[in-house]
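Look over this today:
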Amino acid sequence: MINEQIVQQEIDQLQSLIVLVEAYETIAGTSVRRIRGSVLANREFHVGLNRIFREVTSAYRKEVEHIMEKKEIKIEGSGFSLIKRTKKTVLMLLSANTGLYGDVINRIFMAFIKEKRRTQCDVIIVGRIGKMFFEEVMPGSPFTYFDFPDNAIAIENLKQISMFVAQYEKVVAFYGIFKNLLTQQVRASVVSGVELPTEKSEEKSFQLYFFEPSLEEVALFFENEIFASLLEQIFQESRLAKLAARMVLLDHATVNIEEKLKRVNLEKQRTRHRAINRQLIGSLSGVALWS
């Protein structure tokens, strides 16, 4: 039978747990507030930077096509890059090393695995949770794994990943993106930055530039620099989305623990009343026995 001592032990455990959860929530909230401004500002910056890059590469492509047409050289393929790469396409999953991120990691993985099943591409997994999921869903399927901390952007790890993915013409990253504190979306982005606009309306919006020292050198610089910059931004976006998801999860956990604590405190009162009632009944029985 449950007695007051057992109930009190459960209350103590719940009170300790709520202190721990609130501490984790405070840490996550502090991190979100610290990095949200810079991530969102950099997001806008990279949108503009990528637009300029597309204009530069489009200008270079048009120049090359014009020369090739004059020389009657056949143009093959729709892809375009100034850097010679040895492999075609790779899918990269940005997951996590630990839990407490709600359902955002699961949703990212489901989008990733759907694309993997649709195409025959190489696979890169970042984070132990994603590695575990992938091995369970596609056992024996080859992939390249990179460890990456959840609590910071490790520059050395980022350099290793950047050097590895640089051999691919197209790098598609699957990760979470922060919309607001309550909503984290799944995003699949092309990191390589070599895809060109196909809509004529977008091509017409391009501006004319003068390039120094040359169009080719400017285009090559943009492709190298944007690749590394976009990759870092994606890891920052992923971290912000995970921290925000953790805040929401821990907030819900705090509410659930508080509700549980109320029920256990009520059970404590009931247990105490039952014990008092038993004592009263015992006392009355004793009085009746001696009367």
